[in-house]
# Entry
Amino acid sequence: MVRHLVTIDDLTEVEIQAIFRLADQFLTELAHPDRPHRIRGRKQLADQFILATLFYEASTRTRFSFESAMYRLGGQILSSADPKTTSAAKGETLADTVRVLQNYADVIVIRHPCEGAVRVAADFAEVPIINAGDGGHEHPTQTLCDLYTLQREKGTLRDLNVLLCGDLRYGRTVHSLVYGLARFGARIIPMPAEGFELPDHVTRRLLRDYDCRPLSNEEVQRVRHEKFPVDAVYVTPERPHQRSLFSDLPDDPAAPLKARLPPNALAKIDACYITRLQRERLGENAPASTYPVIDTAFLKDRRYKSSSVMHPLPRVEELGYDLDNDERAVYFKQAAYGVPVRMALIAALLEIRPEILGQPAPARRHHLYQQKTLVCDNPRCVTGLTSEQRYLTPQFLLIPEEHRVLARCVYCEHDLAPRFLARASDRIYSHNTGWRGPLPNDLLLFADLHSAEAHGCVPPTPVAAKTT
Ligand code: NCD
# Structure
């Protein structure tokens, strides 16, 4: 069965580590003699294969490093960096574009401004699809580079304190990264620009799906200081976390959440990961009035003495040039690792090295909702594109919470909180105050009253009284 990389959860921790070992091997065999983080030379591993890069958004590192990686594996590339030159400009849908392109290439790398667009492509493709960034959703291959850099710099990913600075709301690299950090047992310390905090659906997943727990206010106060205005720290449990998010392993309620913060656990920050303000995704939102800047002055505090300074790049004003010669700065190495890491990923997905990927991630454990009563309310979701609406049916995973049932869009993974629900069998609606017991198969969800009534649902008692 063909494997795709749409979100970082498409790979298990074991597979990620296998990809890193192969990247290490490529680096050892092909390293530049004076620059050991840089690949020089070529292997003939993928000489039977073609990789296509289909980029509907600007890119420097991601596209070039994918193409370089394919060349260094001995393969060939087809490249489209300008959406105006593909049939998308004529109104062709994503589904049709990938169904055609898969006849010409063996693996397709896609970047798209809409969240969930790469999921759509993967649903229609018979060759591996790789997400090179879909709007503000995820950027899983950047996360592979980030985790690989961290592991090489620190020797481990477990128990690391990682400070995340800047635009955590729209920065897709941050979203994939927090899930990766949580799964490998690192501590996540968000330091967002005001108004650019991690989105609710991301924090909800950290807590719910990745067993993270936030520090109490008291604990946050203990670590807070003038230059360290963190608003939460997410601690990942210490128990082995080898399951992928969508594993069907039962949640073990008896398993103790062992997350206990040892004294001084936050005295040292292992890495500062800074991102630029994602201006292109701001829409109506005003830019942050103050934006964190990481520079030599910021890093004076002793807790940053051995912090690796990371950035997915490009930088704008949030990362000082005064750091470029500081040995803590690893952002150019991080960009260089894009080649061996992507070489290893391509080799895995094309099954040139079949031992790397295990069984595909098991089916999702949440109820799938496909009734046409709900539409995703995320304005940047691919399901909002008129071209894609010709064939796409909105789909949601139902997430039961104590006081409501949430619907998570399968494409962009935003959560929707429908206000009303009903059973198809009686069409009597009520407020969405949750559902006790297993969710019924005939459950209907509605964003509002108008929608419930438009779908033929009626209120509970008054109508019942009238008809009797
Ligand atoms: C990032 C991206 O495109 O999301 N760049 C990259 O791929 N290395 C970060 C950014 O654009 O800010």
Notes: Residues 367-454 form a domain with the SH3 type barrels. fold (CATH 2.30.30.20). The first strand starts at residue 50 and ends at 55. The pocket of N-carbamoyl-L-aspartate is lined by residues 61-62, 133, 139, 142, 172-173, 275-276, 312-313 (CB under 6 Å).
